[in-house]
Amino acid sequence: MDLSLPPVSFIGYGALHNKTDLRLSPMNDTRLKMMEAIARRRMVAANYNGNRMMLAPHLMFERRGDLFVSALNLGKNWRSEDERRLGHFKLDGLGAPEVLEDGFEPLPSFEAVAPREDDALILAI
Question: Is residue 5 part of a domain?
Fold first, then answer.
């Protein structure tokens, strides 16, 4: 009995109308680690724009052919607990990600929906 599933296809159009077919792009290490962190509610340490960051990833989404993760930057100084919100980080910009054993609680205001109407939700906690 064959229990394999057909490949999932997410087709989008990026800048300059470059067609991106995610069926053909490999499941790279960053994507797999971020998916694991979201599924297990684990913090991630990663490089982004030259800084090492501690992130609490809440969801992954696709926008115009690029993958992003919405995460709370735990190293950012917030004026109050109520001000804390998710930032959107392009997966291609995240380097040397490490899934940590430290867990996190989702933000109380978190809703498992893509940030924009034309974004495609991939995975959420």
Answer: no
Distance of CA 118 to the CA centre of its chain: 16
Residue 19 in any domain: the answer is yes
The structural domain count of the chain equals 1
Q: Distance (Å, rounded) from C-alpha 8 to C-alpha 67? A: 15
Which two tokens mark 99? 């899934």
Domain assignment of residue 2, yes or no:
no
The dihedral sign for the CA sequence 83, 36, 66, 52: positive
- pLDDT the model gives residue 7: 44
Q: Which domain holds residue 64?
A: 11-124
Measured between alpha carbons, how far is 44 from 29 in angstroms, rounded to an integer?
A: 13
Is residue 101 a part of any domain in this protein?
yes
Q: What is the mean pLDDT of each run of 10 residues along the chain (125 residues)?
A: 44 41 58 95 95 96 96 85 87 94 93 94 95
What pLDDT score was predicted for residue 80?
Answer: 73
| Prediction pTM value | 0.75
Nearest CA to 117 out of 36, 63, 49, 80 is that of 63
